[in-house]
Amino acid sequence: xxxxxxxxxxFSALFFAAGSLSxxxxxxxxxxxIAKSDEEVSSVAWxxxxxxxxxxxxxSIALWDSQSGEIIExxxxxxxxVKKVHFSKGGNRLLSLGQDNIVVMRDIVGSSGTIRAVGSDxxxxxxxxxxxxNTSVILPGEGNVATLYFPLRLTNQFISKKLxxxxxxxxxxxxxxDGSTLLAGTEEGKAYILNINDGSGERxxxxxxxxxxxxxxxxxxxxxxxxxxxxxxxVTSIDGRESFTIRDSDFPVKTASFSSDxxxxxxxxxxxxIKIFSLQSKRTRHFFTLPxxxxxxxxxxxxxxxxxxxxxxxxxLLLCWNISDNSQAVKNQxxxxxxxxxxxxxxxxxxxxxxxxxxSQTSEEADGYFSNQESQAEEKELDKAGAETQNxxxxxxxxxxxxxxxxxxxxxxxxxxxxxxxxKKLPFFYGAGAEFSFAVPASDYPYTTSxxxxxxxxxxxxxxxxxxxxxLGHYIKEYNLLFFCEGRLGLGGNMLFNNELKYRRTSKASxxxxxxxxxxxxxxxxxxxxxxxxxxxxxxxxxAGAGVVIHLGK
Length: 554
Hints:
Residues 332-358 are annotated as: Disordered. By secondary structure, the chain is mainly β. The chain has 2 domains: 8-365, YVTN repeat-like/Quinoprotein amine dehydrogenase (Methylamine Dehydrogenase, Chain H), CATH 2.130.10; 388-551, Porin, CATH 2.40.160. A hairpin with a 4-residue loop joins strand 25 and strand 26 (283-289).
């Protein structure tokens, strides 16, 4: 026994003190911390970086600091009880799934806000997980399809990719830590394993469909377990080389979990306890008894180092054990009710979603999702506080330009320009560029000059410029539209080159200082601009350009 049982008198006092509170907390002994709510703790989760853990009861979620044991935030974004909480791989986003058929994805350490994925009556959401990153999520799709969704904030849409078609509705998901291997359970008792990066390695196996627990995969992706009958838990390696059975008369269980290192399996038993089974020794390593009689564990989660274990129960207890040395796992002196009251007194508003996305209306197929690194970079940039847009970080702009020379000799020149621009500090941007253009002389070209005794008649005009640029821009996220004005300052050369001499070609060069003032608009990868240029050789001239923008990533 790893902790001392509380006396009946002690618990009576505890519940008397907690009766008037929606969520109260006590430290009960040296092995675990208990928090008491009026509702079942339906789900618990630990972030992969170990900094946070989360617990859900009724329609509320508490985010905890794992070191201090203090509550960081309480979220009330669901209208019905929460079924599941799950952290992203980076640990900075938290997902919750409610009985209201809504999945909420919130940023817990940044300021990118909250996205709500709203299901329909035809698309019930029985489970949801982050897909190995901070942005994409795997949900049950219409027509018994496990579907990966990637939210685009700029267009308020989800890009979707079908992962696997199942014979019956999907009831559970589990994913390896690296996000590559998916395990999906279905209503008829079939489980599907596949590599979601390339769709390889798909396998189907049967499990006990009346099981209280869904199939689960180890963090390293090497083992899975599932309930094969009312008193057996099957453990097998993904490659099928190793398999064994855990038999226990205390089944059925309501929840079970792999440890983070894949060496332990914790499962709740019907007598109100938790057993921890070692895959190495093939025997039970620990047994924990709940402090309340006739209570049942409903949710379990191991810490990333596999040394601590969270448990939530039907009677609203939240416990945390240190399973490695039987010492106190979390030091927690904070009363959650005081935290809730302090939020109200300070006038702090609860987190509100910034984007509501009905999946059934906005999903679209994107088979090239995993090869589309630009889309992935797009959403990651949006998650950074203060980022203006994913497109405008560093860009290469290629333009076709037309210049009116305002002369009788050369009416118009045509050319190409290339400019590198940095938009990291919007509304200010800067960069550098070069352009090359040429002009054909007018038909009545009156210009005549000589070079080394040879007369130049009707020479072509070639222009080459190097310049630095800076400007101001205003970006409208909803339309992916950038309005900008910019100034350029640089050096250039103009060359008259005679192409009509019969025996030799000659040229005459001049050098100039140039200054441009331009204004334009950029939509997605297209840009147009116009303005005036001062050339110290040619005077003031009018120019315009149109081109494409190539995004260079972060």
